[in-house]
TrEMBL record:
The lineage of its organism: Bacteria, Pseudomonadati, Bacteroidota, Bacteroidia, Bacteroidales. Belongs to the nucleobase:cation symporter-2 (NCS2) (TC 2.A.40) family. This is Xanthine/uracil/vitamin C permease. NCBIfam families: NCS2_1. It is found in: Membrane. The chain crosses the membrane at residues 12-39, 51-69, 76-93, 99-119, 131-150, 156-173, 180-199, 225-246, 267-287, 312-342, 363-381, 393-412. GO terms for cellular component: plasma membrane. It is a multi-pass membrane protein. GO terms for molecular function: xanthine transmembrane transporter activity. InterPro entries: NCS2.
């Protein structure tokens, strides 16, 4: 496909700002949603939620510019990794210092993979069936937090009706909206959903931005090490690695970019540094998103330089708390509804990979995919009082549905149902 602006084309000032604004609008919803969800899970008040989102925006802004100029050098949007939400939820709000220490170590793990040149040697582990399961596990194991968001206000009938209606409207908008508008479905849902919620359910007590100072520390020092939590997050970083490589490869191949192996390696290295930075300041680490192709095809602009104004915009917004503070009024049911839509998209990509790669040839192949998902669901919805009975040392692993799902699929794919190579005659 021929684009108006190719990968390394430099744009004049006006088109650079216009295309940059579009990338900014695509980037900001995931930052706000993940920031708000983590704040909700960790019980942060309005001032601390604003401070958390500020730090998150600063990292994403720096990361976007770093990847475009130094890392993969592709027009790929960056955002907080939803898979790390799973580790945060499973580890418990009371273990916050240990969580962000584990994120630093996870980032170090990615960086070591980059500098050691081990990425190419580990690719045999990530078969297509394992990648499919990992993608689906992210959606399945986030179900409990989505459930809590949707029904947080105790109005079961209203919340259920609102969530289903909002998801159907988002799906309809995704079908009907064309061009660049299709890439703004999540942002429009965020704004319109909040307005509709307050119009039908009453306004909050005050819509003034809270100016109270945050008590959230800027740096996560001193580090606190917990072996179980660290191991749990390393499994999450396996999924993050798959996501990172998949996003970069899909965009790179679509644009016919050269030296894709080197681009992928550099992207993992930069992602590692950014995750170490994120953990050090106490926020979720970033990953690249494959949604970029939609905006590229819609606008005809494949230039990586168009993402630089978006990165700068995210970084600048991090220092304007009054703007970010307005987003503290997003109702949990709106966040939960958007998460349903995003996780449905995640599952859609997983199912599409099953179909296009023809990876289920018999019953055992179906078991490799289905059993890990069932085990993950079982653990994810296990009552809290039963989860508390698991020894603290192994709870972050055994009590984490995502981690146990990954362990199960690895055992099934490379152990129990391992494809035997034909004997030489």
């Amino acid at each position: 496909m021929k684009f108006k602006y190719e990968l390394d084309d430099k744009l004049a000032a006006f088109p650079l700002l216009m295309y940059g604004l579009q990338w900014f609008l695509v980037s900001i919803p995931m930052v706000l949603i993940i920031g708000a969800v983590v704040s909700h899970v960790q019980g942060l008040g309005a001032p601390d939620q604003t401070a958390y989102t500020q730090k998150l925006m600063a990292v994403m802004g720096l990361g976007l510019v770093a990847q475009v100029l130094i890392g993969h050098r592709l027009p790929v949007v960056i955002g907080p990794a939803s898979v790390l939400l799973i580790g945060i939820i499973a580890s418990g709000a009371e273990n916050t210092p240990q969580i962000y220490t584990a994120i630093v170590i996870g980032g170090l793990f990615l960086f070591i993979l980059y500098v050691s040149k081990l990425l190419s040697k580990l690719q045999f582990i990530f078969t297509t069936r394992i990648i499919v399961v990992i993608m689906a596990l992210i959606a399945f194991t986030l179900s409990p937090v989505i459930l809590n968001l949707v029904f947080s206000d105790g109005q079961a009938v209203f919340s259920l009706s609102f969530a289903i209606g909002m998801v159907i409207l988002m799906t309809l908008a995704n079908k009907l909206l064309k061009g660049v508008w299709n890439s703004t479905v999540v942002l429009l849902a965020l704004l319109l959903g909040t307005g509709i919620y307050y119009a039908s359910n009453g306004s909050p007590e005050s819509l003034t931005v809270n100016t109270e100072a945050s008590t959230l520390p800027f740096f996560n020092f001193p580090f606190e090490f917990n072996g179980g939590i660290i191991l749990s997050f390393l499994f999450c970083y396996v999924a993050l690695l798959v996501n990172e490589l998949g996003s970069v490869q899909s965009v790179g191949q679509a644009l016919k970019a050269k030296d894709m192996n080197k681009r992928s390696e550099r992207s993992v290295g930069i992602a590692g540094v950014l995750n170490m930075l994120s953990g050090s300041i106490g926020v979720v680490g970033p990953v690249d998103y494959s949604m970029s192709l939609g905006l590229i095809n819609a606008t005809g602009c494949a230039s990586r330089y168009a993402l630089i104004p978006a990165g700068v915009g995210l970084f600048v917004c991090a220092f304007i708390p009054s703007i970010i503070g307005l987003f503290n009024f997003i109702p949990p049911v709106v966040m939960g509804s958007i998460m349903i839509y995003l996780m449905a998209s995640q599952l859609s990509a997983s199912f599409q990979m099953v179909a296009t790669n023809d990876i289920v040839h018999h019953f055992n192949h179906g078991i490799i995919i289905g059993l890990p998902l069932m085990i993950a669901l079982l653990i994810s919805f296990m009552p809290e009082e039963l989860n508390a009975q698991i020894p603290a040392l192994i709870r972050p692993i055994v009590g984490n549905g995502f981690v146990m799902g990954v362990i199960t699929v690895l055992i099934l794919e490379h152990g129990i149902f391992r494809d035997k190579k034909p004997k030489k005659v």
